[in-house]
Amino acid sequence: MRTISKCISIVSIAIAASLGAAQADDDPIGDRQAIMSSVGAAAGLGGGLMKGEIAYSPAAGKAAIAAMRAASLTFGDYFPNGSNTGDTEAAPAIWDNRAGFDAEIAKFAAATGTAMEAAGRAGPADLDAFKAAMGPVFGTCKSCHEGFRVKN
């Protein structure tokens, strides 16, 4: 139980930090990196749950989904023209194919919206329900990274 509480705390802190950063300054690269950090924390929790590395609980599942949902609602706003240079892994394709990028962000938002609905108030009842809700979200992450993130 201690591990789940720790994971939920980490995701909650990451969400708060990303939202605070997004409101605190005029640094779109830093803001989107902060938001992506919250996504990374949620993905780590979700992946750990799916792999059985972390014992599943509805609250942990809900925390992972909620973090992804929060990010999906604002993330696309932090790629204005001129924010394509500097310390960023954002690929030039974001600005060269804005419609394609916006479509990927819309898929992310739709998948997280569906996952939130499936999670209900208390979170997915069991691991299978969590996998069904979170799988499509992870799929949108993968497809966006393939086309719109600099490959290292």
TrEMBL record:
GO terms for biological process: electron transport chain. Residues 1-24 form the signal peptide. InterPro entries: Cyt_c/b562 (IPR010980), Cyt_c_II (IPR002321), Cyt_c_prime (IPR012127). SUPFAM superfamilies: Cytochromes (SSF47175). It comes from the Bacteria. One of its GO terms (cellular component) is periplasmic space. GO terms for molecular function: electron transfer activity; heme binding; iron ion binding. Keywords: Electron transport, Heme, Iron, Metal-binding, Signal, Transport. Heme c binds at residues 141, 144-145. Binds 1 heme group per subunit. This is Cytochrome c556.
